[in-house]
Structures are given as structure tokens and as C-alpha cells.
Amino acid sequence: MKNQSAIQHAPSPQLQSVSPLQAPLSCVNERLREQVKESERARIARDLHDELGAHLTAIRMAVAGLDEKIKAGATNASLRRQAEYATSLVDDAGSTMHRIIDDLHPPILEYGIADALEWLAKSHAKQTGLPCACECDEASRSTSSIDDFQAISLYRVAREALNNIARHAQATSASIRLQQIDQQMILSIADDGRGFDASEPQAAGHGMRNMRERVRGLAGQLELDSTPEGGTLLRISIPVTAARITIE
Ligand SMILES: Nc1ncnc2c1ncn2[C@@H]1O[C@H](COP(=O)(O)OP(=O)(O)O)[C@@H](O)[C@H]1O
Ligand SMILES: [Mg+2]
């Protein structure tokens, strides 16, 4: 069993550069950001329709059932049961709504990307039972170095990478590292699992595609180093200080 410290965050010579973007930052445009936002809107619309919509339909049916029972002169006990059922559906809908709101803007991001990633690592480890260390250097903790869009994009990339590790990697541990070196914010997520071949068609799912789109939207680079022996290292670097000057 490979241990946590064996997970390497340094890029290796065989790194596959998945979406290098060499264009100058000034050319990295609103169009890419708009694309990312548009697919985000589509996802929210889907969540609202599939999850909240289903709850509302169930509530409507429960209330209609209550009405039927009243008209049919049902017993008080039966009416009470139906009313309790309707109330529990309303509570479920409330929880779903809060989950969708939290997902839109995770409250932990108010504390900065470093704290948010630490929280993500802890809560992911708790949910999956897979140990996940998180190391953020001092420079990356400066809340002024990245804007909200950059922070939420990095957070979502890290979350998808951790989900992929839990679903596909068969790893014994994972780790996140965040570093700010000069004008680059570097996020790496590593695991010691079975690796995969990124050039295979089955490796091109929605998750990987969204990650690449997000990184392109930040004028960044996404590099992937994956081997059966060494697990997977996903390394994202985005220009930070310069991006603030250009975009704000
Ligand atoms: N850390 C990982 N370890 C092993 N395989 C991975 C890892 N990350 C991604 N993959 C592979 O890449 C594929 C595509 O991932 P993704 O685009 O997120 O789609 P999905 O997770 O829905 O399958 C996965 O099905 C898996 O085969
Ligand atoms: Mg995935």
C-alpha cells in the first residue's frame, strides 16, 4: 500500500499537457468565461427541474390527496398522517433548495480558496473514507490574489477531481496542494490509484471536459500525468495577479 507522502505533486517529465493555452492573457476573453457560465446555468436549470421540480410535483399530489380525503370524510388519524407526509415533503424540498444554493456559491469560499480546499478535503475524506491531505502555502492564502470567479472555478475543478478519484481510481489516499508562485496559482490533486490513459475515448467524459473548459476560461493550463504505477496527478496553473489587472 502506497502511503500519503508517496503522492508526488511535482510535474514529471511525461506530463501530458491537456489544454495548454499559449495565447496572451489579454486574448483570453469573456467568451470563454461566458461559455463556462452558460454550462453552469444549464446545470442549475437541470438541478432545479429534476430535483426541486420532482419535490413540487410530489407535494402537489400529497396536498391533492389530503383534499380528496377531506371530501371523502376520512378519519382524523388518516388526515393527520396525510398532512404529516405533505409536511415531510416540504422539508425535503427545503433541504434540496439549500443544497442547490450552497452548490451555486459554496459558503466556505467566503473564507478564501485555501480554507475552502481544506474543508473540501476533510469533508470528502469523511464522506468516502479515503484519506485526503491538503497543503496550501502561505502565498496562496492571500485572499486578494484571486477573484471570485477564479476561486469558484478552482474549487469546482478540485471537487470533480476528488469525485473522480473516489469513483474511478481505487486509490488508498489522495491529496491537494495549492501554491502561489510569482503570478501563477498552482492547484494539484494527486492520488495513488490505478491511473488511466487520457487519450482513450472513454476518458473524455463530462467531468474532464468541464474541467478543461473551466481552466481555459481562466487562461490556465491543465496537465495530466497518469500511470498505473504512480497514480494520477492533475496540475492546474492559472495566472493570477495579471488576470486581476486585465479582467477587473
Ligand atoms: N483519478 C482517476 N483515476 C483513474 N481514472 C480516472 C481518474 N480521473 C478520471 N478517470 C477516468 O477518466 C474518465 C472520465 O472522467 P470524467 O470525464 O470525470 O467522467 P465520469 O467521471 O463521469 O466517468 C473516467 O470514467 C475514468 O475512467
Ligand atoms: Mg467525473
UniProtKB/TrEMBL annotation:
Gene3D superfamilies, per the entry: 1.20.5.1930, Histidine kinase-like ATPase, C-terminal domain
SUPFAM superfamilies in alphabetical order: ATPase domain of HSP90 chaperone/DNA topoisomerase II/histidine kinase (SSF55874)
Short name of any one Pfam family annotated for the protein: HATPase_c
Region (Disordered): 1-21
Entry superkingdom: Bacteria
Entry keywords, A to Z: Kinase, Transferase, Two-component regulatory system
Domain Histidine kinase: residue ranges: 47-242
GO molecular function, one term: kinase activity
InterPro entries: HATPase_C_sf (IPR036890), HATPase_dom (IPR003594), His_kinase_dom (IPR005467), Sensor_HK_TwoCompSys (IPR050482), Sig_transdc_His_kin_sub3_dim/P (IPR011712)
Biased composition annotated in UniProt, kind: Polar residues: 1-20
Identification of the protein by name: Sensor histidine kinase
Organism expressing this protein natively: Herbaspirillum lusitanum
